[in-house]
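Our consortium's second objective concerns turning raw sequence data into structural hypotheses that experimental partners can test. To show how far this objective has progressed, the report includes one record in full. It was chosen at random from the queue rather than selected for favorable results. The single chain below, 135 residues long, was entered without modification.
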Amino acid sequence: MHKARREAFGEDCPCGQAWAGEVLHAVRHLGYEAMWEVLVGTLRGMRRRVGRQAVERLMSYVAERRDMIRYVEFEARGWDIGSGPTESQCKATTRRVKGRGMRWDLVNVESLMQLEALYQSGAWDRWWSRRHVLN
């Protein structure tokens, strides 16, 4: 988003900041379609080739991820949509797996991290009961 803003409007242009705010507000509070309409409108009004290319790249990026960009729905379900909780979980999981004096080989550590994340997220019982039924 902000890479496209810088390329289309320049590093410090207030109009670029306002545009980014409009796009982010639309996707967060109104949904993907509203964000898409802002991008289409921007593309129609963009005169500079470099700016048009930046907006087109952003549109291509979000189009490929449309199923993941459902913030309104996710928030309605009570899910976190920011990266903060995920980053915090990664840090906590790494601390528990990589304790003092522990050594893991690269082949096994990813599986161990996944199991630890299941446990810490409270999804262990649900995962295990489903896994047990399938096997």
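The partners drew two points from this record. The chain has a mean pLDDT of 88. The chain is about 75% helix and 0% strand. Both points have been shared with the crystallography group to help prioritize constructs.
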